[in-house]
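In the lab's daily routine, each protein ends up as an entry in a very long ledger. A line of letters takes care of the sequence, but it says nothing directly about the fold. The three-dimensional part falls to structure tokens, numbers that each stand for a local backbone shape. The outcome of that step, for a single protein, is printed below.
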Amino acid sequence: MHKTSDHTHTDTQASEAPQGAAPFGTAQAPAYTQASVPATPQDGQFWKGALIGVGVALLISNDTVQKSLMKGASTLFSAAQAGVEEVKEKFEDIRAERDQSANPEAKK
């Protein structure tokens, strides 16, 4: 320890570590959360995940479900394409109006 005026200093800062923190120079074990610990067969989360996985596997392997999913995806894709085409048309209309207002003599 070094004594200077009325203050006492130590060579290491271990005594000044915040409460609950490891002193400088010492290793601290990482804190594990529930999410980082793998589920075990005795855990309710394990069985919930297993049942959901089995259900999804059965649905995906069912031909009727596959056809319905593909039909829905096709309908969604077609709707998205129609929306994109509509946006393109509006964009072209706005561009034409802008060009016409910028050059009113170019009317045909």
Notes: Residues 63-102 form one domain. Strands lie at 2-4, 7-9. The chain has two helices and two strands. The CA atoms of residues 42 and 48 lie 11 Å apart.
